[in-house]
Write a structure and sequence with these properties.
With 230 residues, the protein is α+β, with helices and mostly antiparallel strands. Helices cover 46% and strands 27% of the residues. It has six helices and eight strands. Strand 2 and strand 3 form a beta hairpin.
């Protein structure tokens, strides 16, 4: 079945983005304040354990190979996102012959068939800019109604099947976007959804709500405090 068109319940004004090497990404909010991005805050407050694991991974396969894998994954992720976005907007997607395009297209289709077609009731916005006044900003892939619940939804791709411990930052991202949406748009969103597909076309998803959402929201604010040195 084909998805419904976008229901514009809220206006997501585009925030201007600034990229700077050392400082990470900043967004300019409607009041003209420069806000750290959600990804920058998470990146700058990574645990020592995570940093060590990344360094070990790089060492084990060599910098060149690590850079290649990272770049390939980023490209695949970008392509998959754009296929999903086109599908939600237009109801269908066409694909070229490029190998990476085809792989990303197949991955997007897994997410469409497994999750979006059966469970997405409404899409309110795609690539929605969200901000928490004076504190942070970011862009979520989708805001909408998923399995009957207003939700923040992010699409992710992965090289291999990930366990719960490998998606902690993704869950923290959802919490950040939920808090931002609720405060700026006066909503009471209580659900975050991660829809993932591996490059071997294995579907994975996480629905964050209830106590788990509260716990991760607390962790998110801890990371914000850490970032600002509070």
């Amino acid at each position: 079945g084909h998805l419904m068109p976008i229901t514009e319940r809220y206006v997501y004004s585009k925030l201007t983005r600034e990229e700077s090497g050392t400082d990470g990404r900043k967004y300019i909010d409607p009041q003209g304040a420069r806000l750290a991005s959600v990804t920058t805050i998470l990146d700058k407050t990574k645990s020592e354990e995570t940093k060590r694991a990344l360094a070990a991974w790089r060492r084990s396969i060599g910098d060149k190979k690590a850079a290649e894998i990272t770049k390939e994954a980023a490209f695949r992720g970008t392509m998959m996102h754009s296929f999903l976005e086109t599908y939600v907007k237009e109801g269908s997607v066409s694909v070229g012959t490029n190998f990476f395009h085809q792989q990303s297209y197949k991955m997007a289709n897994v997410i469409i068939e497994q999750y979006l077609n059966p469970f997405l009731d409404e899409a309110w916005g795609l690539e929605a800019s969200l901000y928490f006044p004076g504190i942070y900003a970011g862009t979520t892939d989708m805001v909408g109604v998923y399995q009957g619940q207003p939700s923040i939804i992010d699409f992710k791709q992965s090289n291999k099947v990930k366990g719960d411990d490998r998606v902690i930052d993704y869950k923290l991202q959802l919490c950040a976007y939920i808090c931002a949406h609720n405060i700026v748009h006066g909503t009471d969103i209580k659900q975050g959804v991660i829809l993932m597909c591996t490059k071997d076309l294995e579907p994975l998803h996480w629905v964050l709500s209830g106590q788990e959402l509260e716990d991760f929201t607390q962790q998110w604010w801890d990371r914000v405090a850490q970032y600002y040195g509070v």
